[in-house]
Amino acid sequence: MLNDLRYRFAKFMQGRYGVDSLSRFLSVILFAVIVIGMFVKIPLSGLITLALLIILYWRMFSKNIAKRYAENQKFLQLKEKFLGNFSNVGSNMSQFKDYHIYKCPSCSQKIRIPRGKGHIMVRCPRCGFEFHKKS
Ligand SMILES: [Zn+2]
After folding, report:
1. Could you state, in order of their start, the residue ranges of all structural domains in the chain?
2. How distant, in Å, are the alpha carbons of 22, 59, 62 from that of 12?
3. Which residues of 62-71 are buried (b: 16+ CB within 10 A; e: fewer)?
4. Residue-wise pLDDT tens digits, 60-87
5. CA–CA distance, 122 with 125 (Å, rounded to integer)
6. Fewer CB atoms inside 10 A, N or C side of the chain?
7. CA geometry: angle 7, 1, 13, nearest 5 deg
8. How remote is the CA of residue 94 from the centroid of ligand 1, in Å?
9. Distance CA 80, CA 28 (A)
10. Beta bridge partners of 125
11. CA distances (Å), 83 to each of 19, 21, 36, 55, 79, in order?
């Protein structure tokens, strides 16, 4: 009986798209909306849940595989872009930790100087102005 069901399901899923990264992402959002909705009132949470469910199932059982695949690729690109920006923020933060950013008093050029060097003479790379700084 169970095997029969499994077989029928497998047959039903034949030539259909199935689950991809975008679907997994959407189901995480769906789950988050449901869980957060238990504690906080989310406006239109019922509608959002329903819409997400419909999109999820519609994509999973879709037979237009090329189109679903293209959607997923687009999603992955966006994700890459977002995560890329995110890691850039991280490296900027570590720059602040290891370097002082000074402004040249003469031309306002920003100059990056490593921390912990004591008193140093800074020479502006743009206008050649020299000034003392403690790093
Ligand atoms: Zn300068």
Report:
1. 2-97, 99-134
2. 21, 14, 11
3. eeeeeebeeb
4. 999 999 999 999 999 999 998 888 777 6
5. 9
6. N
7. 20
8. 25
9. 18
10. none
11. 22, 15, 24, 24, 6
Burial 11-41 (b: 16+ CB within 10 A, else e): eeeeeebeebebbeebeeebeebeeeeeeee
The answer to whether the beta carbons of residues 52 and 30 sit under 8 Å apart is yes
pLDDT tens digits for range 98-126: 888 889 999 999 988 888 888 888 899 99
User: Taking ligand 1, which is a single-atom ion, which protein residues have CB atoms under 5 Å away?
Assistant: 104, 106-107, 109, 124, 126-127, 129
Token digits for 54?
A: 């419909």
Please tell me the distance between residue 102's alpha carbon and the centre of ligand 1 in angstroms.
10
Amino acid present at 86:
F
Which pair of tokens denotes residue 89? 């923020």
